[in-house]
Task: structure prediction
Amino acid sequence: MVAMPHLPTPAKPTATRKDVARLAGVSTAVVSYVVNGGPKRVSPATEAKVREAIAVLGYRPNAAARALKLGSSEMLGMVVPDMTSPFFATLAHAVEEAAAARGYALLMVNSGGSLAAERRAVEHLASRRVDGVFLSSVLFEPDLRELEAVEIPAVLLNHSTESPGFDSVGVDFVQAGRDAVDHLVSHGHRNIGLVMGISTSGDLDGREAGWRMGLERAGLPIGPVMRQHFDRDGGYQAGKWLLNSSERPTAVFASSDLIAVGLLRAFHEGGVRVPEDVAIVSFDGLAESEYCWPPLTTLAQPVEEMAQAAVEALVGGGGHKSNRRFSATLVRRASCGCAAP
Result:
């Protein structure tokens, strides 16, 4: 007897809206009203029958057909320079929640700090017909012609300056730099250095501009500036340089919490006490800043408020373009010499 070959089980046919209507004993229009939440009202009893039929049949609405009918994909895109960064991960999560509250899903793309990859990401999202894009550019001043060319609504996120024709949302970096210096000066420091993250564009970062303004306003000389990557290793390398420097300041403004974490490790290894030998104020307000030792005094970005403002600007229906610039909040902890709260 010849063994018959094993034949694959036929795929279960996909349930359609007509199948749901037939099982529930209603019209296909009623099924559509239940699935889409309108435009006509359905009695609770009828809705219950339709939803039971949907569950029994495993019906899934056709997203492409729904998008075509509504004229909306109900999907927003977001481009970030580094999705492994705790700050951008936190920001993306806040944007995702704010978008979901309005019925939108979020598709995030990582540019890896590359301008070319950023442009490809925007084009890719536009080709997917998302309803709008949040762009956290690798440039302080992105080429707006790129966004205009893809003809898609966009909000510049983590962007502190005004950009004609576009909504933008960000933090006042300059004020944050001044606030950091003012706070360190209030602790009696006269020699305040800066560890500045390296930007792709090479433009002057607002945090550095604010640091310089703060020193000038206090009548202090410009302290040493160390430029490193916006990560823990960048801070660690800056810290090792400071350990061997005859120009070591008594206080440092670190342009990100991650840089400050790297500084702490280098100082611990080198026997430099924080804040007794070197005080630190950092920027971002990540959860990590509270759990290192000593806990970091930081200028915290209002991430949730920024996310809400960005989503409102993109899908809220307002016609006027604006720049929403938020203030960072000084969170006092032990790294600057403040007593623990």
Observations:
- The chain is about 40% helix and 15% strand.
- The chain has a mean pLDDT of 87.
